[in-house]
Amino acid sequence: MREEKPKMDVLQEASQMLSEPSRNTKRRILTGFNFVFISALLLHLIIQLVEFGKLPDPTRDLILYPFIIIINLISAVYNVRVLWGKREQVHWLNRFTAWSTIGISLLLALLIVHNSINTATSILVDFGFSVIMIFIVGTVIGRKAAIGWFAIASISLFIAYQNLGKNYEYHLLTLEEVNQFNEALSRNNPEAVDRLEFLREHDLAPLPIGLFVSVWFIFMVTLFVAVYYESNMISKVLGVIPAVIDKISIASREKNKLQNENMRMGLELDVARKIQMTLLPKKEELNQLETFEIAARMDPATEVGGDFYEVMVQDDNSAILSIGDVTDHGLQSGLVMLMVQSTLRTILDTGGTEVSLTDAMNQINTVMYRNIRNRMNDIRNLTICLVHIKDNQATICGQHENLLKYNHKTQKVEVIPTDDLGLYVGLIDNIEDYVQETKIEFDDNDILLLYTDGLTEAENSKGEFFGEKRLIELFGQHASESANELVDTIFDEIYRFTGSQNILDDISLMIVKNTQK
Amino acid sequence: MKKLIAGESTITFEETESLLVFEGSMRLANMKEYDVVTDFLKESSETSPQNLTMDLRSLKFLNSSGITTLSLFILTCKKNNQPQITVLKNDNISWQQKSVTNFKKLWDDVEIKD
């Protein structure tokens, strides 16, 4: 399977463009420092070996220095590869290389001063290292790290000062005096030899000026590299600003577009909800029948679905009921619902008994197919069930959810499947072969329950559905209630079941009680 | 083997067996979101033009937009007269009890097996 990288939004891109010069600068400074450090340590080892034929402090020079060189080498190789685009940067490696380089340098700085062959010269020379490092640490890692280094270096400086004693003074010799002393030494003048011995005992052996010059030169190179990249960064940041402004304006346009889109969708949903709620039969329409007690309710989901129901009273005091569900959500579904409702009423409103339910269903399918597929260029469709209730009989047509009937005589709830009574409406041009009617007894005090799938598929926080089984039990237990009470009881129970969960689909319910005496 | 993750469901296509296995609960928000499923099914049917088995036995839930998507796929195959579709269904899952037989209504050549 291919995993795609998440797409960066424009503002993220802009912010990356702005931070890129700074990030690269830090990397260049760190890498420059690594290289200078490696070269200085190698040079030190070579000079010691060539000049004196031995290392002044073998433990330090054979264990610590190689370790420092390896750490710096790892950092240098990683950062150069990232800078050259040869590898992706990794967050932990960025941190590791910066902190390990700086950490090992701090350790070395402390060792040089406090474990040095010459503490007095260390104060003169090696604190120059700390001065540079405060700048580098601040740039590569951050302000807090620079404060840390400053604090440690200050304490270290104070300790070195204490170790030498406040009465210590630097006494400088003229070149003539140096030559005289060296000449005396070469003549094995006992006084000169004794003095040199004495100085060595106190770690104050004379040092050649070349050593001072080369150490300070290395410091200068280190600082120069850091300052060079640091000052270059500002011009780079300035350079990307026009491109960044471009990105920001694109982001702002996208945001506006999104806001407009959201507003449009919000308006669409409002319109859809209005269409849906306006078209449902009013309560007084449901109460027109003398022999049937009808109650119905539809609760729309947050993103309006396409549920609808209709009650069409006929001249012979019978009624044609319908309940249905358009696929998908939003304005388009609302439109489909509007068309279904108009078609239904045109065919079945008054004089509906002259048309068979089967013919009505086929006509509805034709109209919906032509409108949805040809005009709207859409693939929405619907399930719809028509029920003609007359005297003690109900004729059912169309494929939808199961219908439930409470049989007053047996006091049991019967399930009436509609699977074989039709097919999705509006999906294909002709469903005649599949549309059928079935007749059931609908005796006095029997109750019919029609619902949409939003009811049985109402979900609680555990992801469980309300389900048909629960509905059947509830229906049986409360069959003695009036149609209105029964509708409210069932909705209350659904909301008790779903708790704080949003309803994801419209929930529709129609209850019809046969009340003829 | 190709795999499509659609919300809480997956569709796996085993090219060698011309088998599409559906798992989980498929409830993408609207028809538009089902476009990825439509494309995946179309590619699979082009890879296996002779016959194709759709194993729905582990698909616990499919919303009405999803049912429409599968129905349209069947209708497309009917129009092209290929591939021959076999659907494996699970009658213990409520959406399948109702909807799977509709596939055969849409195209009589569809074979449904339990």
Give me the number of helical elements of chain A. 14
Question: What percent of the residues of chain A sit in helical stretches (DSSP H or I)?
Answer: 55-70%
- Strand order, main sheet of chain A: write it out: 1-10-9-6-7
What string gives the helices and strands of chain B in order?
Answer: EEEHEHEHE
Strand percentage of chain B: 35-45%
Q: How would you sum up the major sheet of chain B?
A: 6 strands, mixed
Individual helix count of chain B: 3
Distance between the termini of chain B: 24 Å
Q: What is the C-alpha radius of gyration of chain A, as a whole number of Å?
A: 45 Å
Pairing-aware structural class of the strands and helices of chain A? alpha+beta
Strand content of chain A: 5-15%
**Helix-and-strand structural type of chain B:** alpha/beta
Query: pLDDT average of chain A, as an integer?
Result: 88
Name the features.
heterodimer, A: 517 residues, alpha+beta, 5-stranded antiparallel sheet, rod-shaped, B: 114 residues, alpha/beta, Transcription Regulator spoIIAA, 6-stranded mixed sheet, 35% strand
